[in-house]
Amino acid sequence: MAKTLFEKIWEKHVVKTIEDGPSVLYIDKHLIHEVTSPQAFTGLNNRGIKVFRPQQVVATADHNVPTLNQHLPIKEELSRKQVEALVKNCAEHGIELYGLGHPFQGIVHVIGPELGITQPGMTIVCGDSHTSTHGAFGSIAFGIGTSEVEMVMATQCLMQSRPKLMRITVDGTLKKGVVSKDIVLYILSKISASGATGYAVEFAGSAIQSLSMEARMTICNMSIEMGGRCGLIAPDETTFSYVKGRQFAPQGAEWDKKLADWKMLFSDADAVFDKEYHFDAADIQPMITYGTNPGMGIGVSDNIPVAETVHESDRSGLNKSLAYMGLKEGTPIKGQKIDYVFIGSCTNSRIEDLRMVASFVKGKKKAEEVEVWIVPGSKQVEAMAIEEGIDKVFEEAGFMLRQPGCSACLGMNEDKIPAGKYCISASNRNFEGRQGAGARTLLASPLTAAAAAITGVVSDVRELMN
Amino acid sequence: MKALTTIQSRFVPINIENIDTDQIIPARFLKATTKDGFGKNLFRDWRYEKDDETNPHADFPLNQSQYSGEILVAGKNFGCGSSREHAAWSILDYGFRVVVSSFFADIFKNNALNNGVLPVQVSEAFLEKIFAQGPATELLVDLEKQSVTILTTGENESFDINSYKKTCLLNGYDDIDYLLSIKPAIELFETERR
Ligand code: SF4
Question: Are the CB atoms for B33 and B27 separated by under 8 Å?
């Protein structure tokens, strides 16, 4: 019988299915971080048990770490305690930790792929909703809550109901100035922030296949913003050559064996999805959000919509959103003054993002009143940026290159946007207060964010490219 | 986990759609290493002006004394966004055992069920009917019968829950107990797939 990519992976991981209930799903890799793990370790300790398969767990500190002076003790007491608890828990349970000061430290969804921990065909979970990122490799990867973190620690399994299956096909060629972040913001604007709830979403089509691994990760990363349980892309030569040779990638005969398995990972031609969407890459412009959920996006040169034209699911919330954002319906978003620019987060903090921004800003200077934070996704990304001289380009432009962590993506550490200020952000969520209480977030691609950094206002990057 | 069978109580209405977990519990309160005490920060930034507890927003239902009870009723797509289980903990710690909405985000739904909080998904029409009720109206949520009733009018609707989760909740079992009990099967699975 014809099967989808998702089904092929899922079926290989079902230990047992409970009648009219969930399946017991075996988890290959479990990624943990300081914020959603402490209560899970406490749960295990209360039960008097140890982590079942510590070699399949990898830990890092990312969510609340400072992005300046990481060599100093963390000033904020509660953040410090969380990080210390992680160090202690990992030591007690024999878990590999890439904590502060380690050359592999970074945002959990950046380091998994770059270290070759993330591989096609796997099941991967983490107590963070953007675990969907890893699906770019053709794996089933999704975010879980802390009780589930405890379950996986205790048994390497999870109770999961199989989601419905959706395929989103994007064919065609992207226009100048349009990048993968724009694709996903465009899809979101069409299907809304709840359009994929209950579904595993496979992204397919020539526009997706033409993307690099890092660009694919940006798309799968935001599948959770559509409500998707996970997002995935069939692995191909691009995937295999990305994985090959990385720290924890299979080697030698093991590589050949894995590669043969991975080549079987695609949706069969006549596989059936519960829902399908088709989009044309040529219709996509550089995108930006104007509201308080990631589905509220428009082309950067378009006007902010009026109630009648927004997605039905956002209609009733439009006024509340615009009031929070201090924006007016029916007016252009281009020209809106910007106070902060944040390029970082597991959506857009990889080396290609930094290269893209650097090649655009080289020789340009930021607008005076704008503060620009570039936060690399990992120590390795940071090291590459320095090696390639990207740090110098940023310095000359007046951008601040900080140290790796989640940073202003969720404003858990000191990196907060002040109330009422506008931040154009290459991250993934524009919820009220996400980047700090009262902060106003406009989501965009790193390129569109960089354009605003130069002009000080929301700009169409295409007009600034030569 | 605390068992749940029937809940009869007044409800607190928050008639807003797409309530994300950053609103339920803002990130700055995620620094605790225990599960307790999150209730006081539930909907923190909607409850207080400029984070000031002495300055509550008078028009927010959690601050209005006419509303009380163990049931939270909210607009469509409740609990979207982050996977933080702190959202479910804060709802439970505040005193809610049931959340009624016309649509729930996946991860929130799991997190709620894993903490003995029942997500009750009703039709949009029925949700509107509940919102139209006055603050003295009680709702009856019966998990065994899988039904929710507006006691003043007698109108009711049934809701879905898979039978495994239902049994867990009725008895207060959690998934970890079950998974630990089938460990031999998990070990067998591991050896067979090698
Ligand atoms: S960068 Fe943001 S979205 Fe990504 S893991 Fe960190 S907090 Fe979550």
Answer: no
What contacts A265, CB < 8 A, 6 or more positions away? A5, A8, A9, A120, A121, A138, A234, A235
**Domain spanning A303-463: which superfamily?**
Aconitase, domain 3 (3.30.499.10)
Q: Cα separation of A389 and A37, whole Å?
A: 37
Domain boundaries, chain A: 1-285, 303-463
Q: Is A428 in the pocket of ligand 1 (CB under 6 A)?
A: yes
Cβ separation A155–B183 shorter than 8 A: yes
pLDDT for the residue A313: 77
CB-CB under 8 Å, A47 with B176: yes
Model pLDDT for residues A242-292, shown as the tens digit of each residue: 999 999 999 999 999 999 999 999 999 999 999 999 999 999 999 999 999
Q: What is the largest CA-CA distance in chain B?
A: 61
**Is B63's pLDDT higher than 80?**
yes
Taking only Cα atoms into account, the Rg of chain A, rounded to an integer number of angstroms, comes to 21
Chain segment A41-50, per-residue pLDDT in tens? 999 999 999 9
pLDDT tens digits for range A394-410? 999 999 999 999 999 99
Q: Which fold has domain A1-285?
A: Aconitase; domain 3 (3.30.499)
3-state secondary structure of A217: helix
Sheet holding A230-232, edge to edge: A230-232, A199-204, A164-171, A275-280
| Cα A373 to ligand 1 centroid, rounded to whole Å | 16
Q: Is the pLDDT of residue A466 over 80?
A: no
Of B28, B105, B175, the CB nearest to A159: B175
Q: In chain A, which among 69-98 make CB contacts under 8 A with chain B?
A: 78-79, 81-82, 85
Contacts of A16 in chain B (CB under 8 A): 182, 185
Distances (CA, A) of A76 to A73, A357, A379, B51, B84: 9, 31, 22, 19, 21
Chain A residues 423-452 within an 8 A CB cutoff of chain B = 429, 431-434, 437
